[in-house]
C-alpha cells in the first residue's frame, strides 16, 4: 500500500478574516466558510481522506498540532497512527494505559 504524500487541503480562514464581512466579500470568501481552528481543519481533512478511501499511513504533526489532545484522540479513534511534535506541557502515556 502506498502512502498519501501530498496535501489534501489548505484552507484556513483566520478569525479576524472570518468576522470581517468587507474583507471576505472583497476576496470572494463564501458565507459558508466559517472560522475553525487549525486542528479542527486538520481533523476534517483527515476524516475526508479516510472517507474518500485514500491509502492510510502515519499522520505527521508539528507541535502546534501535537499539543491538541482532542486532535490526537480523534486520530486514534479513526484507527490511524500519528507522530507528533510536542512540548513539556503534554502528558503522554504508553498505548493501552491511562496513567
Protein topology:
Layout: H1 15-18, H2 21-27, H3 38-51, E1 58-61, H4 63-66, H5 69-77, E2 81-84
Strand order of the largest sheet: 1-2
CA-based gyration radius: 16 Å
| Chain-averaged pLDDT | 85
Which geometry do the CA atoms define?
A: globular
| Strand content bin | 5-15%
- Number of separate strands: 2
Low-confidence sequence ranges = none
Structural class: mainly alpha
- Helix tally equals 5
- First-residue to last-residue Cα separation: 34 Å
How many domain modules? 1
Question: Portion of residues in helices?
Answer: 25-40%
Helix/strand order, N-terminal first: HHHEHHE
Q: Could you describe the largest sheet, including whether it forms a barrel?
A: 2 strands, parallel
Could you walk me through the main structural features you see in this protein, from its secondary elements to its overall organization?
- By secondary structure, this protein is mainly alpha-helical.
- It has one domain (15-84).
- The chain contains 5 helices and 2 strands; from the N terminus they run H-H-H-E-H-H-E.
- The protein has helices at residues 15-18, 21-27, 38-51, 63-66, 69-77, and strands at residues 58-61, 81-84.
- A two-stranded parallel ribbon has the order 1-2.
- It is globular, with a radius of gyration of 16 Å.
- It starts with 14 loop residues before the first helix and ends in a 15-residue tail after the last strand.
- 10% of the residues are buried.
- The mean pLDDT is 85.
Amino acid at each position: 500500500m502506498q502512502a498519501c504524500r501530498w496535501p489534501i487541503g489548505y484552507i484556513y480562514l483566520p478569525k479576524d478574516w472570518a468576522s470581517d464581512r468587507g474583507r471576505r466579500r472583497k476576496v470572494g470568501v463564501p458565507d459558508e466558510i466559517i472560522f475553525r481552528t487549525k486542528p479542527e481543519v486538520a481533523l476534517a481533512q483527515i476524516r475526508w481522506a479516510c472517507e474518500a478511501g485514500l491509502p492510510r499511513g502515519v499522520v505527521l504533526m508539528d507541535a502546534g498540532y501535537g499539543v491538541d489532545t482532542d486532535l490526537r484522540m480523534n486520530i486514534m479513534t479513526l484507527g490511524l497512527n500519528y507522530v507528533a511534535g510536542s512540548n513539556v506541557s503534554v502528558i503522554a502515556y504508553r498505548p493501552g494505559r491511562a496513567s
